[in-house]
């Protein structure tokens, strides 16, 4: 039998299935990602993108298959702060009475004591992270007063402060301004050079071609997976989106 | 004359304090209000108002059974409070009925069971005081229990303050960084059941949900900082309790109802005049005069 050295993979998902009360959301899905790889997760609404993220973070349990994060269980990845999740802007309560600083500090909670008292190192990590996303002027701004782009950067800063080696980003480019988009793409290059592994879901096909080394096309299961240049073909995209041609999706000129 | 005596603010406040039962009522209700107000911030942000209503009504049969068996009523209330939530979760998962329908039918079922039980075990239970509260007639053993439960809830909420905030705000992130979300969920439910138990002494089962949501909602309109929200929520709850009890003393009104009405008026005031989120946005009005 072939022995796989799991240490080589940051993420190793093998034949995973997720169902909610008997309703299948994802089945037989596989994914292997190495350090420094950026992978795009592409699929329709309800194709199982968020479910895939939830399975990797341990937010939902898989009913079949196996997930290894850095060769270990999801449980120990949680304890080690290995994975950071950057939610969709719609996925959070923007009216929650909380400041940028407090949100970013939440990235440090997992490594703090039970009372979550910030140490000097936590404060420094939060400061650095906020500086990297260019929000130093908004430290105490309530998240409700931020623009969509600023809010997205706040949650990116939380992931940076967490010092996670794997970043899962749900629609990182949706509803953001040009400046934020530019900053995020610069950060992606930095993350890649730092050896972080990134899995991002997106609707925007241009971003896939621009950033993603790999692409995972899903529709309840994996439709295609591999190097973006090889896998991201009109045929595969059409299959992923249930027979709708890419022309229809991106406009005839693309 | 009574009317003359409260024309001076001084005697309006000090006269009731000469009665032992009033001192006790003011103290206990303030304590209960503080506990419920503290929890209220979490419940309003988590969107658990309906859950609060469900749990507070569902404790009814627990209270009755505990009284009948001579057990501490908080124990019975706690078991039925948490039990109702477990039952709601179970029915929701195993049937196609929508969640708000399940919540509605489970808590009314429990509540009805409580009422039926009271009519069967009439002897020493005062239905009126369970339904509408009796802060003026609180017994010594109730005082001890209330203090114990209140301290317990305050300590639990204080220790897990930040984790609960994270749980309300972004449970997915909490889970991702290895925080026990399951534990936090049941911790919040436990605190909710316990707060409902102490709250029902002040304002009764029917109105206890107001203690659990109104102060939080008021505070939510007044601040954008979570810590401030907790402080405002606790303060507005305590002030409402004091106002409610004084007003009910001088005008001979139902105490529980008066406390909740005071809360409602404070909420309405915030709703209309809150600096940023009020209808009239006082901040803007003042800015206009400068």
UniProtKB/TrEMBL annotation, chain B:
Cellular location(s): Cell membrane; Membrane
Protein species of origin: Prochlorococcus marinus str. MIT 9314
Record membrane topology: Multi-pass membrane protein
Any single Gene Ontology cellular-component annotation: ATP-binding cassette (ABC) transporter complex
Gene Ontology biological-process entries: cellular response to iron ion; response to zinc ion; transmembrane transport
Keywords of this entry: Membrane, Transmembrane, Transmembrane helix, Transport
Family the entry assigns: Belongs to the ABC-3 integral membrane protein family.
Membrane-spanning ranges: 25-45, 65-90, 102-123, 143-160, 181-198, 204-222, 229-251, 257-274
Keyword Membrane in annotation: yes
Stated name of the protein: ABC transporter component
Zinc as UniProt keyword: no
Entry-linked Gene3D superfamilies: ABC transporter involved in vitamin B12 uptake, BtuC (1.10.3470.10)
Highest classification ranks of the organism: Bacteria, Bacillati, Cyanobacteriota, Cyanophyceae, Synechococcales
InterPro entries: ABC_BtuC-like (IPR037294), ABC_TroCD (IPR001626)
